[in-house]
Structure formats: C-alpha cells, structure tokens
Automatic annotation (TrEMBL), chains A, B:
Keyword list, A-Z: DNA-binding, Transcription, Transcription regulation
The protein's name in its UniProt record: Helix-turn-helix transcriptional regulator
Keyword Transcription listed: yes
InterPro entries per the UniProt record, alphabetical: HTH_HxlR, WH-like_DNA-bd_sf, WH_DNA-bd_sf
Pfam families, alphabetized: HxlR (PF01638)
Presence of keyword Transcription: yes
Gene Ontology molecular function terms on file: DNA binding
Domain HTH hxlR-type: 26-125
Leader sequence residues: none
Length: 136, 136
DNA sequence: CTCCATACTTACCTTTTGGTATGTACTTAC
DNA sequence: GTAAGTACATACCAAAAGGTAAGTATGGAG
C-alpha cells in the first residue's frame, strides 16, 4: 500500500512544481478554501451572470446571505484578485462589483459544477435516502 | 435595479425547473455544500486519481485530514451517491472506496477547478497582497 | 500474553463560522 | 423631523465544524 501511495504521489509530481491542493502546506489549498467557502462560490456564480452588480443586488440574488458575510466574502475574493471592486465617491455610496480576468476563469469551473449539480439533482437526491425515508 | 435583478432571475428561469444553488430553499445548495466542504472536494480529487482506495490510503494522500473528518466526509458523499463503499468481512477490516458514475462526473469539475488554481497559483498570489506585504 | 493493524465511533473541548442587531455618514423623500 | 436607502463595520452571541484522544472488535505476530 505504501507503494500505491507513492505511485499516486509520483503521478502528481508535475503538480508539485506549481500548486497542490492535496498538500496541507500549499497555499493552493487556501485559495480553494476561499472559492469553496459557503458563500464564495455563490458570489462567483452570481457575478458570472452579469457584468457588474451592486452590493444590494448581490444580496438579493444570493438568497440567504447576510450583509456581514457578503462583505467578508467579497473582500477575500478581492484580495485573491478574483473580484474587482469599484467605488464611486457619491452619496449615497455607490459600489460596483465585477469579476477580474482571473475571476472569470475560476467562475467558469464553479458554474460548471453548479450546473452539473442542478441538472443531476434528482439523480443525486435519489441516491440520498435521507430525503425520502426517515427512521421513526 | 429591481429590473436588473428580475432580468437575472429571468435568465436563470430555466434553472428553477431543475435546481438552483442561488435559492436558499433548493436542495441543490446542500449538495454543493457537501462537495465544496473543507474535505469533500479533496476526497473527490483524491479518488479521481485512482480506481479504489482504502481508508488509510486516503488519510495519507489527503494531507491534514483527521480520521473523524475523513469518515464523516466519506459518509456524506456516500449518502449523496457520489462515493461507493465496499467492505470485505475479514479481519482486520478491509474497506475500499471509489467513485460512482455520478461521483466521477462531479469530480471532473472539482478537479478542473483545482487544476486551474494550481496552474494559476502564482498569479493569484500576486494579486493577494497579504502574502507579500504585511502592515507593521 | 501483549502489541499491532484496520476502520472506524464516541466524548470532550477549541476554533471557526455565521447570524442579529446596532451604528455611521449623508442625502432625498414625505 | 422622521424615515429610508446605500455600503458597509463592529460587537455580541449561537451554532457548526474540527481536532485530540481514547475506545471497539478481531486475529496474527512475537
């Protein structure tokens, strides 16, 4: 079994020179955490639907997100260079959010996953016994 | 602005008949949560590398995961019908994990995202100022 | 007879995450 | 003059996630 683990590591050797989400040291795992955080992926999906959005628009589209969490998530994604924040110095405040080039590329994969889930939802739910039967 | 939100909702109308991760009611969001949970995606990625894996192999490959979390994550993914668990009634116990057809399809998207992150890691890190400069 | 290995489970505790409520600054609408 | 809208920040608390350590069952190795 030790050999098999090594074989897999060997197959992943190319990955070690860039990033490796399977390694707990690698910053790639941090980035994956940001994108796959509770609201991170949904923000990318929402932004992928249009060009620019205001804070309050995003709040309405991403159902259930609180102001605090949306602000926090947007900041993290902005720091990763995935989201662009443009604020206009007017009152009341006007801020627009959009995806950067990097952000669009990442969003494509997240949207791909979300679409797959949405299309295969019934199949997945069928495999999930909890949703149809429950022990008394 | 209300019109814009409606326009987006209209553009997503097709999605409402299947699943919609942007809706907080829809079970699709739960499935997304499972897959994008801290260890869920990494399990899919690891399993995607080979045919079958034993519990202890997965623990070694997915660096940093605890026994408790790996067991829990595998159970959730099994309930969603993404992971297949095969146990052989021998002693010491022998259990093999692999992806189902559904699981393979989901894994493709997760692997795609992970690969993108790994390939673009330096670019992302460059946009992330926290990793190079720190306020004193 | 004791130790080791496998694949877990369980109890206990800490850390992280997330929600609610409130405050801010300013202007327009009523 | 009071409320509403905008884009947040902040404090406080509850819930969830996660780690550690120990226990379980069983048989073989020493």
């Amino acid at each position: 079994m030790e050999e098999k683990v090594n074989l897999v590591k060997e197959a992943l050797s190319e990955r070690y020179r860039r990033g490796d989400v399977l390694s707990d040291q690698c910053p790639a795992r941090e980035v994956l955490k940001h994108i796959s955080s509770r609201w991170g992926g949904l923000v990318l999906i929402a932004l992928h639907e249009g060009d620019t959005f205001r804070f309050s628009e995003l709040r309405r589209i991403i159902q259930g997100v609180s102001e605090k969490m949306l602000a926090q998530t947007l900041q993290v994604l902005e720091q990763d260079g995935l989201v662009l924040r443009t604020s206009f110095p007017v009152v009341p405040p006007h801020v627009e959010y959009s995806l950067t080039k990097l952000g669009s590329e990442a969003a494509v994969h997240v949207v791909g996953l979300a679409n797959w889930i949405e299309e295969n939802l019934s199949g997945i739910l069928a495999g999930n016994k909890d949703s149809i039967e429950e022990a008394p």
